[in-house]
Design a protein that fits this description.
6-stranded parallel sheet, 14 helices, about 40% helix, alpha/beta, about 325 residues, about 10% strand, homotetramer
Chain lengths: ~325, ~325, ~325, ~325
């Protein structure tokens, strides 16, 4: 059970007009998240994790001391709440995640480290395999990838991570938590840059059959922490668990309400729908979009800037209309 | 607040291996649904409705007496629970919905009547305008369309309904409750026939911007009972209410957690995402599917059979593997 | 053998900066075309036809006398050249083609009459079936459709023509000469309105397998003058003749250089290409566009104006840059 | 003026039922091609080239002596006909093209060498840059790429060739002769493997605007022998010449019959078509396919075998029906 502390560092809660830092405080939000997670975890016997993610401080180029200070504020709350382990996730720069891992290890916690990068590596140009090696060498117990790309692009990147870890003789577990959106057209910075992000991603949503395929491929690759990120609905996660029912020693509880491999269609009124009550129908179907006036791929924004670039300096003031107008000019004409 | 009594007639609950009729009984399910709906409705001041839908009895050609007996069993429970009004919905044949309206009116309830048909009319070939006229003449207080087609196809059908009602001098309210899936390629029987139904419809899911457009067009057409059916998520419904904020006299409660017209993007870390914080960006975007190996339109199954056809006789036995195999042959080779 | 006299009326040759009327004269061009056609026809034993098409005079609303005068100038040349029959084709208004048929019949020639319309009828709203009946009643010996739509949309329109002719008890032959471009998205005015017209139609080009299918369907419908219009390449026409080899009593001469039904692939170096040497492979293939950033359908221009509208008054002056700029405004903003 | 001697080696003319070797002989065909080319070249002052391409002998693994013997038979004819230079093109293996270059140089002719490979390199896994270096070191005066990929994929490969040549300090001219078909989905072996090859490539055909873009990009990259291969129509080649009119010192003769940058549309009858008489309209248009039931990308066959594999041994017998059936099994089920 992961406490919902994503992007809950103090600097992020005070960024661009966000009043949460003042209204609720970093400590207040992280503490509430831990308590909620523990409450639910105790309904069963789940472990509880606190989580860190990348910071505006790093993106603005303020350096290691300031960045680690932001992490420390959150980790202090996690330790007070006696979480079982820590997750450092959604980092675009391996340097920053190393700093995060360092803070976590100092507090004596096991660490899962996962970056939001793809096969092209981190935003400073560090290859994806090298990112894995550096996370492992920094002391992370599990390393891998979350967010930014679809399951199959993520697995491409994990394949490179595994090869580099093997070559370096490093033994750590692997984690994959991809999007539930198809992103074959995303470049280095992932789905953030796609024109559909974040309010028109619907045509890209994965089917449960995509998830079956993803679970099987991830398992074969050796990934043992198999999950999902943005866009995952409960039925997607259930599909992962159903695909791996044998390996996991049984079906998940959610399968009680659900006939496996579309068998529920056997009760359908129309005979041609009953004919679809078989797994191979769904596995070979290529679903249509119903959108004949839309293309299949988009051109990502690709501004190509990252930590260190002036345009990425974060600030506490709310964005003005003039700034939006200026950005739109840039978006149309380039820099 | 509509009680969840869809397809909860006794014959449907005992169809093709469904054990609900025996295990929970028609009365039990309809009664529980009414009580749940009332409980929630009392949190505010919502009206409560019970609902009827089409029956296997009709589809099997067993006639008016038997079909109305199925309706009566449900309506008795609705009356005992003192629901405020009745909804007869998801009918493919105007003859059957007339019979349903008759049962409801006898019990003294106001009736909303809505068919799951499109611009091509009902499955027996009755034009969509004539269906509206017949529902109104049967005594329904609100008539219209639900399910089976996307918002814009539904509005095309409603335009024909309105024209026919006007021509007949009939004054009733209109209801539209379309799918949240794009279905430009569906024929008479709607999305049921699309190869993606029901487990691979994801690429067809409407965006919130589609819903804004739908709400506006429906309102302009004169529809005043504007909602949604399969595929609608809470954010879709919120988009309807936000589009019509002025007409409704204010924003819905759910908008408290939501910046209007994508204004929340003003806080985004990346400048090119902040540039998208404006409504016109989203209204003109044609979202890509991320599925370059899929087509945009599908060929529906189009078996072209309906009530009266032998292949549609319903039965209580569970579907066998042999029957599935036979249906698959038919699906590939035609009848 | 049809003389190339398309759009070679005097008013057209002097329209919007066209200097052909002055430089070569209407008589000169039509006469040269007839002589060329006869020369080639005499290589075998082909018939020779002269052709008329719609006029700027009609479009500018100048009436029957002026319009028929334009036709007469061309027909005089055809008669002097003793062509075997006349083709009046590419008319968007049935009224104008009736006037053309009248001029031709007066000169004692057999007439083939074909309009560039689709299932939605002529541009003044006359239904397609009624157009056929009016052409037949005007005395045309063959009636049908050419240009503006793809083979399958044309056949849809011809089906309506045939039904109307049958209902009226009229016996004439049918002609179909569709485009070799797919146009499912074109509205009343056909491919002219598609954004790709005329310099980016490549992705819409029909395959030879489309042509086989078209030839078979046209033949079944009863069409006996089966040909093609814009976009047809010799291999498309050969495919028509090959499909109907049995009905025509043999293969066309061009098949000497061509193995039937892709049998030539049996000689291919790569085994997986030899595997494609069978007709069913090609008939079931759905060819991809290789253009993932393009949609499958376009939004036609649909200005919705026709003969009688001021914007369609033709003139002899060349179009100015200012006029182009103004038109572009209109194209973007609407009228 | 290139003599049409493509695939006219003796072993190819006798492969899989081809009777040309016996009926016309290698010498007869190559000689006739040279004479035709010279005849046409003398109408102006064009140079004449003879061409060699890859051989079944090499593919069947018969070694250098046998392969060069095949080349020698053709080159002897070219020398007798006093062609100005030689083109060795359409080679998938750099080793074979080195052998071809060697034969040509021995006869004292200047040599243009071009492989049908893409960014992934030759079929034995030699990187594309290394292929360029080896061709240059073997003595070719011009090196580059023809066929198998679209203009933009070819330029990607040429970029790698240029970088490798520069790194090796080699100075040779570059040639590009891509397909006129879009092939973003083709893998190592190019369009041969696409399911649409060779009889359903129509939706992939490039527009003239694609060609303008290709010509400009090729020129900028430093390519000076800019042409085209399969799928190029005269209007495509004219577009290359028009784009580079300034660099070439004038327009090509074919532009006499053609208004530049769509200016001919200024004479069009319909005002909305006159509005398209500007280059930027066409350069930004993303043309639709008119094929909503087709995908944008295909899955190539990818058998992944090449010279040395048993399945590629060539033979003189015609392919039997049994062999075709067996290949189809393989195509469906894999090896």
């Amino acid at each position: 059970m992961q406490a919902f502390t994503f992007y809950a560092s103090d600097d992020k809660l005070a960024n661009r007009g966000n009043e949460s830092s003042k209204k609720y405080t970093c400590r207040g939000i992280n503490d509430a998240a831990c308590r909620l997670a523990k409450e639910v975890a105790e309904e069963g016997d789940a472990l509880v994790a606190g989580g860190l993610s990348q910071t505006p401080t790093y993106l603005s180029g303020l350096g290691k001391v300031h960045t680690q200070k932001e992490f420390q504020k959150q980790v202090d709350v996690f330790v007070e709440n006696k979480v079982d382990f820590l997750i450092v996730e959604y980092f675009e720069h391996v340097e920053e995640i190393e700093w995060a891992i360092e803070v976590c290890l100092k507090m004596g916690k096991a660490v899962v480290a996962s970056m939001c990068i793809g096969p092209e590596g981190d935003l400073h140009g560090v290859p994806v395999g090298e990112c894995a090696v550096r996370m492992a060498k920094a002391g992370a117990h599990v390393v891998g990838i979350n967010c930014h790309f679809d399951p199959f692009v993520c697995l491409d990147a994990l394949r490179k991570m595994k090869a580099a870890l093997d070559a370096a003789g490093l033994k750590v577990h692997l984690i994959s938590q991809p999007l539930a959106f198809h992103t074959p057209d995303a470049h280095k910075q992932g789905f953030i840059d796609l024109p559909e992000f974040p309010f028109a991603l619907e045509p890209r949503i994965c089917t449960r059959w995509d998830m079956h395929k993803y679970a099987r491929e991830a398992y074969k690759l050796g990934v043992r922490y198999i999950g999902g990120c943005c866009g995952f609905e409960p039925y997607h996660t259930r599909a992962l668990a159903e695909e791996l029912a044998v390996e996991r020693g049984g079906l998940p509880k959610a399968s009680e309400k659900h006939e496996l491999w579309s068998a529920g269609l056997r009760m359908h009124t129309k005979p041609w729908i009953r004919a679809r009550a078989n797994r191979s129908y769904w596995e070979t179907l290529k679903p249509s979009s119903g959108r004949p006036f839309c293309a299949s791929l988009s051109q990502p924004d690709d501004w190509g800037v990252t930590a260190g670039d002036a345009s990425l300096k974060q600030k506490t003031d709310a964005t003005t209309d003039e700034e939006i107008a200026e950005l739109n000019q840039h978006a149309v004409n380039g820099p």
